[in-house]
């Protein structure tokens, strides 16, 4: 009986429920045009029950209930919620275009603007769009994400600097570094910021956008905005990440057996009377020998990162507090970086007309590195160089007979393990910076801003070379310690006026003055000859106080003073005009040239607001931009335009030795700013309710009044004097495309592409320097770069290899009559039947022809997958490791395998690689050739990230949570044989690109969790 009663109750409930359900129909149209919207999503809120509109914009949905809420959404439109009351069964829904894309606020110089009002070339990258990975530098977060912005990781060592070039490089002898501005404070080190604290990064690419920064904007401006608080309850976010790194690619060198067989063959082929080095028994016994890269690289290097942020606020204040801890072990043993960061951002509004803003950041770094001397040679080389060239027949570890690491006395190289464990470089750094801003609104539409800011960066670097190394044993230990501090002070005073005249005329005016001071001081000391290695660099006064001791110090200062102004005018939301100026002065130039004027003007036409464009419903946004501006570069050393004194020779007066002084330079009071003038024309577009958006820019950037050292007759007493001369042009195209391919409740797919084309050319050089040949790496490679009219600056300059001389060639009648079969054949460019320095040609350039970034973001329910591919094409580099392979210092050094396993022999008459017999015959000045200048192009699967948003039931503790897994640097498609084609031993502040013993790129697998409380 109970079962029957229960069944009747359930049946009754089902009948009642069925009676409450009903079907609905309707249509979805554009409110403005009354056109049907195809593919609009209609979903019952909180469920997966729903449908989409058909080609007529119509829909039908069954089995809905009274009280259900329909969510209607479509890309480019504002979503709507409709409550079902049970009575209405048919719905005519009109959707309103969502203008948030155009209303998006973008940070510009000394202010913000709506994206639709921008007249210059500005790229904005925000949260969710940053390049992911083990990032320790803000520049890494925009790597491959901005057209016209080339980011290079010159070294993959923990905490290594990052190189940025915005639309090429215009200065031959001065700085090409971009200006970094963080929360209004210029000159901040991008590595001192916790990436998790960054809200957005804007790049001011053209002169019309950057001219407001005048003095240091010639190479572009990077504006970094950190996170702030939001009004409402406190929000706490915690993130934790762990990862495991491995060397993405090693260099294939000769193994033990190949090494022995190659050295024997070279001996025999060169008719060396000493005969073979190794016996057949020794070769048979060695096997593969020791791969020294395996001895200095970690198999799995851990990395961990923890983030905590607290934010909140009320009507009168908001706050943001960020804390982070970062710990990375490098893929080279003993290298590591620990980084601690704290940030506090606070805003107060005690009165409606008064606002206070406070930003503070502190970063502490503790780093340990291997001895990286990437440009060192022989016993001064680092462990990476030694690992590539050291004898593979020797066993790793300590030789029990000598108590020391094994060595081959014929190589003049230290053991890689000795260099790794016998040298202990360390670096500690402290960086603190902050701003305090006061905003007063004394009258309606007027705002007065006063900003005070400061940066203090200090560091200490210490190193000790113990007796485990060859040089350390000879000097009885070598210790060095250096310490420096860089401080910057800023005071800015701005007045702005903003007025809207009946939505027809909109006017914004900005005027201001800035004052900055920079102070640097540095001290260094070295000592040798210690009784023991026990105290390392912590007891330097116990050295022997002989010739190995050295002390050096300096202190210098410079100041900047600028006056700025800008006018923004908007007529009918169609025609936009921006005009700005900067009148800057620097203490680095003489009084006659201390100040310079940098103007800019830009015009934009929002064509999509014109009636003749509005009739094309597929066009959501269309804007034409035209801009011109001038920028300055004062990137020279202090005191170049005034006379200072320095220590000279000594003289004896009486019985005393007196120190002499000499003039430090021949000053040029006529020296003035380098000036960059840039023209830019661009188009911003959006189609199909902004499902497709992007921009296309064309630019020409000329940098004139280059700073050169003019040679002087020796009778004057100085070898040169700095003068202004020369001109360099950068021109190119920047293209960005963003598409929303699928957007529904269940599925989503977005694509982003940025593409850049660059051409760099020298247009003028001074008559006294028709061409400039430079370049130096290590102690034996030089003169590989040329700067001359018609070519890119710092082009690679050397000999073109035509092939290999064969036995049947008529060598005696060639341009190299003394050559032997198997040796390199160089092209006789001037047809004079002799290979001379006049036969050198440009073999490559350090600028890419094309760079691109391609991102696909996919979503399915709570899962998200992003794949980012980066490409750098048409760029070359000097590979010094190939030089050391083709032209080894002595025969016992190991080499890159392919050049010897595939070398020319009588049985293998290849036309690709030389025989290696007597390489000095085609080496020396000829070592800079088309075999050692190599293609450094690459396409890299930079990042793959898979995340899952965990469904959280409503509670008072956890608001949201997600987990993710990621792979960085999964694979690199390249013809380059080294560790990383993106690396450069020249460093992050040089245009030149040289690969030599670079720190290997790491492939990283990461796992993390993010929780919001």
Describe this structure in words.
By secondary structure, the protein is mostly beta strands. The chain is 9% helix and 48% strand. The protein contains 12 helices and 53 strands. The strands form 12 sheets. The chain has a 22-stranded antiparallel barrel. Strands 10-15-16-13-14 form a 5-stranded mixed β-sheet. A 4-stranded antiparallel β-sheet has the order 3-2-5-6, with no helix packed on it. Strand 5 and strand 6 form a beta hairpin. Helix 7 runs antiparallel to helix 8. The two termini are 52 Å apart. The N terminus is likely disordered.
Give me some keywords for this one:
disordered N terminus, five-stranded mixed sheet, mainly beta, about 1000 residues, 22-stranded antiparallel barrel, 53 strands
In short:
By secondary structure, the protein is mostly beta strands. Helices cover 9% and strands 48% of the residues. The strands form 12 sheets. It has a 22-stranded antiparallel beta barrel. The chain has a 5-stranded mixed β-sheet with strand order 10-15-16-13-14. It has a 4-stranded antiparallel β-sheet with strand order 3-2-5-6, with no helix packed on it.
Would you tell me the structural class of the helices and strands? mainly beta
Q: What's the total number of strands?
A: 53
Radius of gyration: 33 Å
How would you state the average pLDDT, rounded? 90
Percentage of β-strand residues: over 45%
Number of helices: 12
Low-confidence residue ranges:
1-19
> Percentage of helical residues?
under 10%
Distance N to C terminus: 52 Å
Q: What composes the largest sheet? A: 22 strands, antiparallel, barrel
Shape: globular
């Amino acid at each position: 009986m109970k079962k029957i009663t229960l069944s009747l109750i359930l049946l009754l409930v089902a009948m009642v429920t069925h009676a409450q359900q009903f079907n609905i129909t309707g249509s979805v149209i554009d409110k403005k045009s009354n056109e049907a919207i195809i593919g609009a999503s209609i979903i019952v809120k909180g469920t997966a029950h729903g449908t989409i509109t058909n080609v007529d914009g119509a829909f039908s949905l069954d089995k809905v209930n009274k009280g259900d809420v329909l969510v209607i959404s479509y890309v480019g439109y504002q979503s709507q919620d409709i409550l079902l009351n049970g009575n209405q069964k048919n719905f005519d829904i009109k959707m309103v275009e969502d203008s948030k894309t155009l209303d998006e606020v973008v940070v510009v110089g000394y202010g913000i603007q709506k994206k639709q009002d921008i007249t210059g070339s500005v790229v904005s990258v925000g949260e969710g769009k940053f390049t992911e990975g083990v990032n320790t530098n803000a520049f890494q977060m925009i790597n491959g994400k901005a057209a016209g912005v080339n980011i290079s990781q010159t070294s993959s060592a923990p905490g290594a600097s990052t190189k940025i070039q915005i639309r090429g490089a215009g200065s031959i002898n001065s700085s090409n570094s971009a200006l970094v501005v963080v929360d209004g404070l210029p000159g901040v080190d991008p590595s001192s910021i916790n990436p998790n604290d960054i809200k957005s990064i804007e790049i001011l690419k053209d002169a019309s956008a950057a001219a407001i920064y005048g003095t240091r904007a010639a190479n572009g401006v990077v504006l970094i905005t950190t996170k702030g608080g939001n009004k409402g309850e406190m929000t706490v976010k915690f993130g934790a990440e762990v990862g495991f790194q491995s060397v993405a690619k090693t260099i294939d060198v000769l193994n033990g057996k190949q090494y022995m067989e190659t050295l024997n063959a070279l001996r025999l082929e060169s008719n060396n009377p000493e005969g073979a080095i190794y016996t057949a028994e020794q070769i048979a016994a060695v096997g593969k020998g020791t791969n020294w890269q395996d001895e200095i690289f970690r198999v799995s290097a851990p990395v961990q990162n923890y983030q905590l942020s607290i934010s909140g606020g009320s009507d009168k204040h908001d706050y943001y507090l960020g804390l982070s801890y970062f710990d990375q072990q490098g893929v080279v043993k003993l290298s590591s970086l620990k980084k601690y960061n704290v940030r506090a951002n606070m805003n107060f509004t005690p009165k409606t007309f008064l606002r206070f803003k406070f930003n503070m950041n502190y970063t502490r770094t503790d780093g340990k590195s291997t001895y990286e001397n990437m440009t060192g040679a022989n016993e001064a080389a680092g462990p990476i160089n030694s690992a590539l060239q050291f004898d593979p027949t020797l066993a790793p570890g300590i030789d029990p007979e000598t108590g020391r690491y094994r060595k081959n006395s014929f190589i003049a190289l230290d053991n890689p393990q000795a260099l790794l464990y016998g040298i202990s470089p360390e670096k500690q750094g402290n960086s603190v910076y902050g701003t305090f801003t006061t905003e007063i609104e004394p009258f309606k539409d007027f705002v007065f801003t006063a900003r005070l800011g400061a940066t203090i960066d200090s560091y200490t670097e210490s190193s000790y070379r113990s007796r485990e190394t060859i040089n350390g044993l000879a000097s009885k230990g070598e210790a060095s310690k250096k310490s420096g501090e860089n401080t910057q002070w800023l005071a800015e005073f701005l007045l702005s006026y903003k007025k809207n005249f009946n939505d027809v005329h909109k006017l914004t005016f900005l005027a201001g003055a800035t004052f900055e001071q920079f102070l640097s001081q540095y001290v260094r000391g070295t000592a040798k000859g210690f009784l023991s290695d026990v105290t390392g660099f912590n007891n330097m006064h116990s050295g022997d106080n002989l010739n190995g001791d050295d002390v050096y110090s300096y202190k210098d200062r410079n100041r900047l003073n600028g006056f700025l102004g800008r006018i923004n005018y908007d007529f009918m939301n169609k025609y936009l005009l921006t005009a700005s100026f900067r009148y800057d002065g620097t203490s680095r130039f003489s009084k006659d040239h201390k100040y310079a004027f940098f103007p800019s003007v830009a015009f934009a036409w929002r064509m999509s607001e014109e009636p003749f464009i509005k009739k094309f419903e597929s066009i959501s946004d269309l804007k034409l931009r035209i801009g011109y501006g001038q920028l300055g570069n004062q990137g020279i050393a202090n005191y170049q335009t005034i006379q200072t004194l320095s220590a000279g020779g000594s003289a004896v007066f009486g019985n005393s030795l007196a120190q002499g002084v000499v003039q430090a330079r021949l000053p040029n009071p006529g020296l003035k700013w380098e000036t960059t003038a840039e023209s830019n024309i661009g188009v911003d577009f959006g189609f199909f309710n902004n499902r497709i958006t992007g921009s296309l820019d064309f630019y020409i950037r000329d940098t004139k009044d280059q700073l050169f050292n003019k040679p002087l007759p020796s009778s004057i007493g100085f070898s040169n004097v700095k003068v202004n001369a020369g001109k360099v042009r950068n021109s190119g195209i920047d293209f960005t495309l963003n598409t929303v391919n699928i957007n529904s409740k269940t599925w989503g797919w977005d694509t982003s592409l940025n593409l850049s084309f660059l051409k760099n050319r020298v247009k003028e050089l001074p008559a006294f320097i028709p061409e400039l040949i430079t370049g130096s790496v290590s102690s034996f490679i030089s003169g590989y770069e040329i700067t001359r009219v018609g070519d890119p600056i710092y082009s690679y300059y050397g000999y073109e290899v035509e092939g290999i001389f064969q036995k049947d060639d008529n060598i005696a009648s060639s341009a190299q009559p003394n050559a032997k079969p198997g040796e390199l054949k160089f092209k006789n460019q001037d047809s004079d039947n002799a290979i001379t320095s006049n036969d050198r040609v440009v073999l490559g350039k350090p600028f890419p022809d094309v760079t691109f970034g391609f991102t696909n973001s996919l979503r399915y329910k709570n899962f998200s997958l992003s794949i980012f591919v980066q490409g750098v094409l048409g760029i070359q580099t000097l590979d010094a490791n190939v030089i050391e392979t083709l032209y080894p210092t002595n025969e016992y050094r190991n080499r890159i395998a392919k050049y010897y396993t595939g070398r020319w022999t009588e049985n293998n008459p290849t036309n690709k690689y030389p025989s290696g017999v007597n390489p000095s015959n085609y080496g020396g000045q000829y070592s800079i050739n088309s075999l050692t200048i190599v293609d450094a192009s690459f396409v890299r699967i930079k990042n793959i990230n898979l995340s899952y948003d965990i469904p959280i039931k409503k509670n008072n503790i956890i608001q949201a949570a997600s987990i993710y897994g990621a792979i960085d640097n999964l694979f690199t498609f390249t013809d380059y044989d080294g560790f990383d084609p993106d690396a450069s031993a020249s460093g992050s502040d040089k245009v030149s690109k040289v690969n030599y013993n670079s720190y290997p790129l790491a492939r990283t697998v990461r796992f993390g969790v993010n929780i919001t409380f």
